């Protein structure tokens, strides 16, 4: 995953708030490598700097320590990029903190295969209340070979299909419910001189979101699950080739704004195209709601921003309620930790994470925490309609596909982004894309 976009894709921001970075090295905690210096019942966490996560996590740990004098936790904070390097080195050297913060998916799978993290499945079965209060959809990226190796925590950020209500009214159009309707809208808006879809194609992961959804709608969750599992020739499954073909058909129909391959997401230019009326639709992360509210003048306050579920594909296997994006953040327990340290970590997992105070803090920051039963709290916010949609989408998703560049290994993810770039500018065919990606299976 690209670090500059990882932070942008991890949290929702609202107007007036600083962008919510993944708490990403300026070590500003109290513990050194491994972090344990406080007695038999102590444990350690490495986490990330950056508001609001740094403030929220520090307050959560402090509250736990105050209530548990015999089970103390040492918190050390690092900047995002440095953390990712340091945690790999520490784990490899057998000096990992007790609790390993991460993003699940491919990184977690690597830890599991090396025997570096604890299987939490038996403990969760003995403590069902811990799992039952969290979104079921968040556990997919925490699961390897049917066993759970990380506890989901923090917040959720699905990918949302946004649209400009004013432009749709001008065109006399309704949000598309099927892929065929979406294709028809490309002609409708092009005839009006309006770009159908905004896309920051130079950033590559923005194009990846399209593939994630189309793969699901055509082939269902099994299609990517086979890829994740390294099944031979999984990328050239007939459903995959159909999805790849549909993407190029959308490109050929001028579905995306002219010059999309030179537009970057970091500049928020893709969002500006939507709220200034240059483009009618945009597929993007839930976090963009906040920046559009902040930067788009009256666009959001006046109710001109709308959203809808990604369309179905005729004959496709994917459920309309399936979604993609970031189903949560994740915390594992080091297999090298002592029994006492593991006991403290599990106590923290059960009693310290996503407490009512922490949940309130996340909501006040403009994010949707991955706990059930917060409808009333979300309904009390200024962004209640949107936050409730995000909450319902994530909570009720039969399948929440983690972003592919997080789910896959770093090697496969980079190859994926390079090939997606070529697919969208039509310099390779769907068959060539599939062949190139089949070569990365198992890497």
TrEMBL record:
It holds the Pfam family SBP_bac_1. It comes from the Bacteria. InterPro entries: Bact_solute-bd_prot1 (IPR050490), SBP (IPR006059), TAT_signal (IPR006311). Gene3D superfamilies: Periplasmic binding protein-like II (3.40.190.10). SUPFAM superfamilies: Periplasmic binding protein-like II. This is Sugar ABC transporter substrate-binding protein. It comes from Arthrobacter glacialis. The lineage of its organism: Bacteria, Bacillati, Actinomycetota, Actinomycetes, Micrococcales.
């Amino acid at each position: 995953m690209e670090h500059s976009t990882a932070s942008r894709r991890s949290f929702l921001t609202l107007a007036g708030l600083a962008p919510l970075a993944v708490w990403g090295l300026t070590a500003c905690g109290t513990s050194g490598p491994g972090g344990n210096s406080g007695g038999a019942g102590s444990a350690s966490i490495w986490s990330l700097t950056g508001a609001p996560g740094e403030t929220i996590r520090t307050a959560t740990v402090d509250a736990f320590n105050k209530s548990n004098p015999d089970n103390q936790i040492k918190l050390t904070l690092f900047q995002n990029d440095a953390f990712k390097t340091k945690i790999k080195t520490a784990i490899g050297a057998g000096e990992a903190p007790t609790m390993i913060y991460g993003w699940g998916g491919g990184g977690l799978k690597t830890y599991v295969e090396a025997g570096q993290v604890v299987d939490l499945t038996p403990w969760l079965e003995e403590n069902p209340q811990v799992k039952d209060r969290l979104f079921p959809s968040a556990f997919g990226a925490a699961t390897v070979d049917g066993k759970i190796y990380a506890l989901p925590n923090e917040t959720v950020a699905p990918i949302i299909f946004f649209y400009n209500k004013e432009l749709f009214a001008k065109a006399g159009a309704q949000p598309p419910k099927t892929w065929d309707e979406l294709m028809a809208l490309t002609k409708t808006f092009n005839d009006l001189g309006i770009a159908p879809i905004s896309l920051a194609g130079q950033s590559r992961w923005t194009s990846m979101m399209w593939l994630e959804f189309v793969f699901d709608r055509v082939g269902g969750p099994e299609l990517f699950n086979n890829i994740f599992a390294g099944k031979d020739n999984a990328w050239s499954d007939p459903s995959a080739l159909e999805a790849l073909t549909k993407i190029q058909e959308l490109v050929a129909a001028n579905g995306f704004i002219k010059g999309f391959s030179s537009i970057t997401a970091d500049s928020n230019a893709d969002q500006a195209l939507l709220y200034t009326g240059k483009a009618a639709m945009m597929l993007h992360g839930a976090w963009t709601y906040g920046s559009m509210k902040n930067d788009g003048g009256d666009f959001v306050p006046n109710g001109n921003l709308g959203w809808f579920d990604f369309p179905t594909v005729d004959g496709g296997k994917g459920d309309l309620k399936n979604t993609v994006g970031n189903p949560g953040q994740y915390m594992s327990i080091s297999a090298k930790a002592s029994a006492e340290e593991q006991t403290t970590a599990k106590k923290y997992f059960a009693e310290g994470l996503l407490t009512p105070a922490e949940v309130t803090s996340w909501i006040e920051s403009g994010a949707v925490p991955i706990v059930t039963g917060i409808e009333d709290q979300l309904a009390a916010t200024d962004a209640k309609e949107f936050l409730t949609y995000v909450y319902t989408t994530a909570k009720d998703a039969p399948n929440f596909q983690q972003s592919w560049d997080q789910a896959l290994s770093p090697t496969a993810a980079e190859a994926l982004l390079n090939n997606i770039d070529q697919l969208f500018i039509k310099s390779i065919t769907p068959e060539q894309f599939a062949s190139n990606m089949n070569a990365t299976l198992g890497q």
